[in-house]
Write a structure and sequence with these properties.
Helix content is about 25%, strand content about 15%. It is α+β, with helices and mostly antiparallel strands and about 140 residues long. The longest helix has 12 residues. The chain starts with a strand and ends in a 5-residue tail after the last strand.
Length: about 140
């Protein structure tokens, strides 16, 4: 399976994760999820693969989260998915899928955990230097 990233070009974290994937020698399939959101089934699958609740996958900052009242604990998973499909900006990003697993890559350097040959070091957009030390 080729590496896949649910990406938002306007997000620095997402751009940094994409740069780390590419620096690790991968050519990912990039899905601009704001224009092409995952299906209902795929969204549920992604959350389950990351061992996250759908509520934990919701992005709050710079989204209609508060306006839509998504902090209501009585909302069902189906209602949360409905909101994410209607407003894809609510889906936290970047989500990366590889043969190694699925992760919400926040911070962006988490993506290195999924790379077969992770780059040893990279400078993020903000100047922070990320050094990856494989724990294996």
């Amino acid at each position: 399976m080729p590496t896949l990233i649910y990406h938002n070009q306007n997000c620095g974290t997402s751009r940094n994760a994409l740069a780390m994937i590419q620096a690790s020698g991968e050519t990912p399939r990039v899905i601009e999820y704001l224009q092409h959101p995952p299906s209902r089934e795929r969204l549920a699958w992604l959350a389950s693969q990351m061992d996250m609740s759908l509520r934990d996958l919701l992005r709050r900052k710079d989204t209609p989260y508060d306006k839509l009242g998504l902090d209501d604990p009585t909302l069902t998973d189906e209602q949360l998915i409905d909101a994410m499909l209607a407003h894809p900006i609510l889906i936290n990003r970047p989500i990366v899928v590889t043969d190694q697993g699925v992760l919400l890559c926040r911070p962006s350097e988490r993506v290195l955990e999924l790379m077969a040959h992770p780059v040893a070091s990279l400078t993020k957009e903000d100047g922070e230097i990320v050094t990856y030390k494989d724990s294996a």
